[in-house]
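Students often ask why inverse folding is considered easier than folding. One informal answer: many sequences map to the same fold, so there is more than one right answer. In these notes we will look at a single instance of the problem. The structure comes first.
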């Protein structure tokens, strides 16, 4: 039996992207929450919760990019040229965030400037990721396997709204993470901030879903015209159930549940995205089979991935295990 390698690689890259959103999402979210907490002690605790793990979280962004290059090179001649500016700005934001994270702890007179760089880099990276997502969903003009649109096709009300939606998602993840990792007054403040954020997130998910169904006939057909609505319906139902669960867990002062349910919301939103575009890797017309490299190339890179990916997963699991537990003001920071 021959393995359908494009499907295998689509699953690997899809997994890598989701793990990146799940992990790097909450530490980008902490940068988004920084403006609401001006106390030096609060900000230091917030940073200390992600100090041991933030750079490891970005490993999966590299995995996704390298996997695309090796398994789906046509994506590089379509998706990337269509989004050069937001992708470059995303990298700039990640660089500023990383540099600010390392230099802030060693600065004295310029610490406030590095706080601004940390906040600005987090906002820029999250916003640009959402814009690229919106550009992908609304479709990219392709002729003969190459991008044939205008340089600013990515700039649309829909893509900008998706950018705002990603910021809301990351901020909610950041709140959930800090409820899990902190206690006392900071934890109480995070519960207060998370309540409206979850409501905003639900609203954003509803608007994006309605926008795609109304504006994109292919997506509307996939959900309502293909006869598979019964299989897809659990996704929105579970979204509402998770939001209710978050509000309930915040009221009952649970510590891990808000974060876990927010991760579930991200998974459900990601599932809805995959349902909407499958089997296209670049909507509206480029499928995973049309975009794939040769069978031998995909097989060669798959061998390396099978060896390296478990190591990455074990490493990430161990870093969270080693640095588990609460982080409090006055604790020695990780450097």
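Output (designed amino acids):
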């Amino acid at each position: 039996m021959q393995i359908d390698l494009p499907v295998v690689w689509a699953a690997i890259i899809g997994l890598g992207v989701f793990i990146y959103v799940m992990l790097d999402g909450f530490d980008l979210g902490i940068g988004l929450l920084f403006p609401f907490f001006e106390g030096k002690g609060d900000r230091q605790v917030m940073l200390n919760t992600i100090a041991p793990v933030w750079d490891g979280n970005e490993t999966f962004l590299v995995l996704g990019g390298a996997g695309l290059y090796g398994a789906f090179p046509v994506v590089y001649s379509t998706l990337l040229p269509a989004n050069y500016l937001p992708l470059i700005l995303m990298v700039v934001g990640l660089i500023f965030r990383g540099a600010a994270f390392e230099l802030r702890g060693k600065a004295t007179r310029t610490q406030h400037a590095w706080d601004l760089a940390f906040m600005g880099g987090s906002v820029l990276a999250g916003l640009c990721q959402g814009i690229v997502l919106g550009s992908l969903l609304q479709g990219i003009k392709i002729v003969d396997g190459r991008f044939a649109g205008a340089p600013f096709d990515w700039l649309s009300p829909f893509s900008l709204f998706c950018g705002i939606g990603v910021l809301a998602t990351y901020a909610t993840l950041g709140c959930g993470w800090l409820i899990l990792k902190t206690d006392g007054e900071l934890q109480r403040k995070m519960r207060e901030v998370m309540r409206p954020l979850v409501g905003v997130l639900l609203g954003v998910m509803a608007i994006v879903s309605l926008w795609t169904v109304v504006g994109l006939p292919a997506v509307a057909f996939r959900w309502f015209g293909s006869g598979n609505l019964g299989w897809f319906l659990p996704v929105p139902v579970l979204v509402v159930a998770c939001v209710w669960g978050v509000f309930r867990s915040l009221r009952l002062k649970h510590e891990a549940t808000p974060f876990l349910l927010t991760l579930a919301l991200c998974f459900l939103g990601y599932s809805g995205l995959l349902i909407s575009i499958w089997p296209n890797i670049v909507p509206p017309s480029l499928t995973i089979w049309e975009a794939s490299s040769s069978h031998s190339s995909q097989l060669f890179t798959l061998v390396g991935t099978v060896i390296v990916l478990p190591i990455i997963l074990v490493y990430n699991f161990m870093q969270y295990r080693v640095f588990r537990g609460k982080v409090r003001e006055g604790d020695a920071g990780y450097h």
